[in-house]
Design brief:
Elements: H1 24-29, H2 31-43, H3 48-68, H4 71-93, H5 100-121, H6 125-146, H7 153-174, H8 187-211
Helix pairs in contact: 2-3, 2-8, 3-4, 3-8, 4-5, 4-6, 7-8
Length: 215
């Protein structure tokens, strides 16, 4: 089990320090998720608790990763991402697949198998699998918009565009193409800011779906 305590498989611009918090800048940038989560919880109403807890969970797991800098905590970080995309897939696919119990079980098994594959394959496997799930989510949203089961496509496109922008900065950071001395402006930190905003915007998007007249 020593490999779980080894260094992560992805190296970012901010070098890990021999401190209580290994990567303080990246760790601090996770506060964006905490702020978003608390704002969502305070709003109240439909979906606010769901998305608020999601934001807090993603931020907490990511903070643990940046604070401890181990392969195990990297798996925690990836687990938060998988839970997020899993919830979004459930919200969409539940409008397509009638048997929600089977859908929930199927998604849980798929996410568990994805995590196992990540552990076995290592490297960028987690990010690749997460990317594939994002593609499936995008396809499901396009289908729902085209079949009029969802509306406000521009609102969703803005949320996804912000996520995509953050992902580009993440790629620059992971590949060391864009690094600054001030860690709060490095790609991973920017990815945290954009993801926190994306979660909030997706909350607003799904809230609009819940309020629209039934077809």
């Amino acid at each position: 089990m020593e490999y779980l305590l080894s260094t992560p498989t992805v190296q970012y611009c901010e070098a890990a320090l021999d401190m209580f918090i290994a990567r303080p800048w990246y760790a601090a940038s996770n506060l964006a998720f905490i702020v978003a989560g608390l704002i969502l919880l305070m709003r109240g109403g439909r979906y606010s608790r769901l998305f608020g807890i999601l934001a807090l969970a993603v931020g907490t797991l990511s903070f643990i990763y940046d604070a401890t800098y181990t392969y195990l905590s990297q798996l925690f970080d990836l687990s938060g991402m998988l839970i997020l995309i899993g919830v979004l897939l459930y919200l969409n696919l539940s409008l397509i697949i009638k048997n929600r119990r089977r859908l929930l079980i199927g998604l849980a098994i798929s996410l568990a198998l994805s995590l196992v594959a990540i552990i076995i394959l290592k490297g960028f496997a987690g990010n690749i699998l997460f990317g594939l799930l994002v593609v499936i989510y995008i396809a499901s949203e396009i289908y729902l918009l085209r079949t009029k089961k969802h509306s406000h496509g521009k609102a969703w496109a803005i949320a996804f565009g912000i996520f995509l922008l953050g992902f580009i900065f993440w790629l620059f950071d992971a590949s060391h193409l864009y690094c600054t001395d001030f860690g709060l402006l490095n790609g991973r930190s920017i990815f945290h800011y954009t993801n926190a905003l994306t979660i909030y915007l997706l909350f607003m998007f799904y809230l609009k779906q819940a309020r629209r007249p039934q077809q």
